[in-house]
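#struct-help
A.M.: can someone run this one for me? Single chain, 138 residues.
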Amino acid sequence: MVQRQSEGIKKGNGPSHDQAVRNVVRFLREHECEVYTEWYEFWSAKFVKENKWKKEPGHQYDIVARRLINDVPFGKQYFIEIDGEKHGHTEPQINDGMAEKWVTEQLRQKIIRLPKVECLGTATDRQIFFNDKLCDPI
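D.P.: on it. Structure tokens below:
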């Protein structure tokens, strides 16, 4: 059976995902965070071997935000992922699970997952959502 390209899992980010990332970045910068997009983390060989990972040994996170705090070297850092429609499929869920495991267990950092649809709402709706989901952690 031949699968049509339009039916497969799409690789890369689409325009709505990019807009969602821009909306989150704007909010974080307004709240005095250093913001990095498309942040790539290479996983250690030990982590890859322990988890029997056979694919690319790392992950590109949508956003890494850092807030500088007095007396805290490098401040607080957060990894933020925008989850869209393709995250309902098995392969992206497995990849996301490994990416989250790296952040929480190896880096001992927090990962924040945001639904793409919420990041694309009206300006007022986004502001309420971001205040609720992002202000406490950052």
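A.M.: thanks! The helical segments are 15-30, 45-50, 90-106, 116-119, 123-134.
D.P.: also worth noting: The chain is about 40% helix and 30% strand.
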